[in-house]
């Protein structure tokens, strides 16, 4: 498994688990749940934030939030 923060632009991944329970609740409310497929759409020029597609919409995450999301490439 890798951290979402380590995934490059254009890659699709499956959310496996969250390392931090506080971020889990926030992301779950936005549709990021284990088993969901997400795609990294963009990474800002300085690397923060990143833009992902999840459940049909775009979501921006700070890099420190993406570090708590463990994913597996598909």
TrEMBL record:
It comes from the Bacteria. Keywords: Iron. GO terms for molecular function: transition metal ion binding. Pfam families: FeoA (PF04023). InterPro entries: Fe-transptr_FeoA-like, FeoA, FeoA_core_dom, Transcriptional_repressor_C. Residues 2-73 form the Ferrous iron transporter FeoA-like domain. The keyword Isomerase does not apply. This is Ferrous iron transport protein A. It comes from Arachidicoccus soli.
């Amino acid at each position: 498994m890798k951290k979402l923060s380590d995934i490059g632009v254009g890659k699709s991944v499956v959310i496996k688990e969250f390392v931090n329970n506080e971020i889990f609740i926030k992301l779950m409310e936005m549709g990021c749940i284990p088993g969901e497929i997400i795609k990294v759409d963009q990474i800002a020029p300085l690397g923060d934030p990143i833009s992902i597609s999840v459940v049909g919409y775009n979501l921006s995450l700070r890099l420190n939030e993406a570090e708590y999301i463990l994913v597996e490439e598909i």
